[in-house]
Amino acid sequence: MHWVWWVVAAVALGVLEVLTLDLVLLMFAAGAVAALVASLVGANITVQVLVFAGVSTFMLVVLRPFLLRNLRRSTPLVETNTAAHVGRTALTLTEVTDRSGLVKLAGEQWSARSSQTGVVHPVDVTVRVVRIDGATAVVGPVQDPDEDPPHAPGTSP
Question: Which pTM was predicted?
Fold first, then answer.
């Protein structure tokens, strides 16, 4: 009759894994399935629990790191949250200085400041987001594609 509890545990852990997606509960579900098999072949509850613990530990230590490595390698990195805004263009809503300003970025109003000291971006100008600092977009001029990129002082183009 213990096999019913192992089925319930395996299904519950599998469902919870779908919600968390960290592959930990999946390893425990595999342990529950192994204990279910042990129960079906007639092992006593002590052996079933040991099988559950052993298989779960093996899966966590050996299989999970392998699966995570392959999953991360096969899944492209998609920038989200503030990192996704770096490189986008924004429209200045107020004059943007190295201390303050407002821009419209991705349909939202963001506090902003210039990336270079002393540079002022006037109202209604397109700027490029260089980085996000907290809740502030740090912006610079939009590079014209026909222009040569700027070079560091003392280097030749």
Answer: 0.49
